[in-house]
Amino acid sequence: MTLKSDTIRLTTAQAIIRWLSNQFIDVDGQEMRLCGGGFGIFGHGNVTCLGEALYTAQDALPLYRGQNEQSMGFAAAGYAKQWLRQRFMFCTASAGPGTSNLLTSAALAHANRLPMLLLCGDTYVTRLPDPVLQQMENYGDPTFGVNDAFKPVVRYWDRITHPAQIIQSLPNAIATMLDPADCGPAFLGLPQDVQGWTYDYPAVFFEKKTHRIRRQTPDADELADAVALLSSAKRPMIIAGGGVQYSRAVQELTDFAEAAQIPVVETIAGRANMRNDHALYIGPVGVTGSNSANAIAEKADVIVAVGTRLQDFTTGSWTAFAGDAKFVSINAARHDAAKHMSLPVVGDAKLSLSALAAAIGEYKAPDDWTGLAQEERRKWDAYVAENVTPGNRPNSYAQAIGTVNELCDTRDRVVAAAGGLPAEVTANWRTLDIGTVDVEFGFSCMGYEIAGAWGARIAQAEQEPDRDTITFCGDGSYMMLNSDIYSSVLSQKKLIVMLLDNGGFAVINKLQNNSGNESFNNLLSDCPTIPTAFGVDFVAHAASMGANAEKVANPAELAEAFKRAKASDKTYVIVMDVDPYEGWTTEGHTWWECGTPHISTSDRVTAAHDDWEQGRANQRKGV
């Protein structure tokens, strides 16, 4: 590095890392680095230049060694969720398959509106050595390569072809990741030659900068329209989405609901917006919801949706609500606020809820409506209490969830993803404290469970180091992506992994059977290409990666093992077999649109199709 008056000569890679090191954020009055560090796997596309830059900055930007690029991205997503999108991690991968392995995790971050910076190797700008190892050649467009595949799954994309370009590109990437309306992953393609090229950067570019996340005030006219509609409501309901937590608007949500005595239901991403014992909390809504929430959803006349994109699992593919129900959608993102003929209130949830509460005045929901919702909730509570109780059915997900729920600390974080566990956790977990549940169902990504929990634990260690991160994982997801058990042990970021083994992809087998099909290629026992199925020794496997591990026979043994896991100083894996057919949560589901064969040689498939289609009668059309 050489100095030249008011400029600093650096390589492109050095400049990127130096700039990142000097970006800070104000989090509730405390200043800290905006970027918490990164996850990296080095290859020839990033080790020589970006690796050299990261080596000199490891105190400011700690680099966690990944085992798989996809899982690095999941870990970065888990980290961002734990920090409520106020901080992010970067992921760096080599050119070629290293980078393309990040596509799925970029899509997960995009679907969930999560910040993540991808610093990925790219082919040479000069093209002098072309074609190079791992280059994907496009005969008609030599500028078009694997990294272009990220364009649909990131919010910001750039390929750096000259060192000076980062002066504009880096601030734009950060602005995107911190924008509540446009939050998502940012991608920078870094050609291997450009990474090492030098430039005389202006010194002012590297001065310390403290960021704040914008809060958009709602438009007065939109707010007035919302007040007018809500004032006329006889059966109002609030849907609380993940955006409530990202806006840090939980208190405002609670205050508004209490003042107006409006029942509150939660989306999957909005789980833990309210504690389970709150009188106005009626349960999770939708396909993986509760009878209580869905019972009032189908009767509500005005629905205030806060911080939710109203995806099909929330809306029951738009069959969960009365055909004449009116929606007010409060969302920082215009695209989400305007969905499904909603009356939009484009603005920050915290500011919008406060303004709505002030403007609504003395309005209160009718006592009989609120009472009806609370009675439905009492009935649901009784169902859940029975559902999670061991002894009256084979081992089940619900029993494992209930056992952990009884024994965990109120501030422990619970993680689940894809498969059957998101529905089971959403329905059966009784929230002990705000912001303690992460059910990844935005992109429904199997494999997030352990990797996302590792990222969450890294963030949790920065916030509440004496609490645990608990992840529920099925055997199918475990087999897809388990290597971050090793990562958690190496980095001393303890996880408690509840590994529930049902012998394959049991929830998809359930869908297969419910649609009239025979079990085929989902459970190991039903795969025609497997002559003799056998179970994996998950205890030995987890132990080989350095974790403590044991197998239990039933929920009573699980309870004792969980106590040992809590006392352990390193990652602990508890394995329990669960029944693939019995023990599912059978209540609380709305209709869900799923393509079924219109004709079939199987009478069962045809009958299931006809039965399925009957649910379409309640579907809102054209919205």
UniProtKB/TrEMBL annotation:
GO BP term, pick one: inositol catabolic process
Thiamine pyrophosphate enzyme N-terminal TPP-binding domain ranges (all copies): 39-134
Pfam families assigned: TPP_enzyme_C, TPP_enzyme_M, TPP_enzyme_N
Residues in Thiamine pyrophosphate enzyme TPP-binding domain copies: 440-575
Top-rank taxon, per record: Bacteria
Keywords per UniProt: Hydrolase, Thiamine pyrophosphate, Transferase
Gene Ontology molecular function: acetolactate synthase activity; flavin adenine dinucleotide binding; hydrolase activity, acting on acid carbon-carbon bonds, in ketonic substances; magnesium ion binding; thiamine pyrophosphate binding
Domain spans labelled Thiamine pyrophosphate enzyme central: 224-356
CDD domains, alphabetized: TPP_PYR_POX_like
EC number(s) given by UniProt: 3.7.1.-
One GO cellular component, as annotated: acetolactate synthase complex
Gene3D superfamilies according to UniProt: 3.40.50.970, TPP-binding domain (3.40.50.1220)
Xref: InterPro entries: DHS-like_NAD/FAD-binding_dom (IPR029035), Myo_inos_IolD (IPR030817), THDP-binding (IPR029061), Thiamin_PyroP_enz_cen_dom (IPR012000), Thiamin_PyroP_enz_TPP-bd_dom (IPR012001), TPP-bd_CS (IPR000399), TPP_enz (IPR045229), TPP_enzyme_TPP-bd (IPR011766)
Family per record: Belongs to the TPP enzyme family.
Name of the protein this chain belongs to: 3D-(3,5/4)-trihydroxycyclohexane-1,2-dione hydrolase
